[in-house]
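Run log // design_07
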């Protein structure tokens, strides 16, 4: 089991697509899954911010992945943070049965907290790759997905109009100023 994690705009999906394409070139049977709620670029394809894409199956729940991916050599899962907690058991069952499972997802939500099932997926994976964006404000590594829109729900689909990848310093400055306006 392999997990690719990081902030928005860090190249998680790009890396997932790269690994899955290599498996296809090796003649392996590959299936890719994504949550049905993720319709930002395509209802069916997994698409990176760089517009690279790979055909996938959109599913409502993690159990569908177990049913549809059980006869594959490699199963790819994008946007794993949006799946129910059962995704951890599904990924482990597939891996225990000999399937290579490659998972991509946000490790933290917009509040900087561990996101959904991602911590448990990272804990049970053999390989964890953390990728980073670049903070446009500081030029440092960006590992936070800071929401710049006004939504309060944990799950809010969006792109650059809603989120910005920022460094720890920028994230902490913004969080502190929002929580304590007199701190400026």
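design_07 sequence
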């Amino acid at each position: 089991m392999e997990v690719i994690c990081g902030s928005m705009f860090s190249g998680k999906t790009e890396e997932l697509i790269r690994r899955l394409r290599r498996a296809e070139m090796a003649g392996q049977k590959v299936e890719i899954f994504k949550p049905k709620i993720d319709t930002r670029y395509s209802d069916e394809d997994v698409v990176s911010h760089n517009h690279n894409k790979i055909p996938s199956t959109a599913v409502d729940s993690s159990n569908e992945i177990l049913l549809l991916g059980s006869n594959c050599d490699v199963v790819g899962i994008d946007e794993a943070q949006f799946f129910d907690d059962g995704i951890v058991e599904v990924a482990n069952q597939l891996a225990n049965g000999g399937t290579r499972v490659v998972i991509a997802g946000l490790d933290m939500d917009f509040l900087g907290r561990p996101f959904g099932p991602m911590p448990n997926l990272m804990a049970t994976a053999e390989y964890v790759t953390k990728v980073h964006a670049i903070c446009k404000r500081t030029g440092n590594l960006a590992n936070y997905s800071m929401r710049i829109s006004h939504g309060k729900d944990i799950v809010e689909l969006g792109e650059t109009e809603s989120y910005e990848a920022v460094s720890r310093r920028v994230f902490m400055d913004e969080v502190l100023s929002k929580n304590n306006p007199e701190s400026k």
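Helices lie at 12-25, 62-69, 86-96, 118-124, 168-179.
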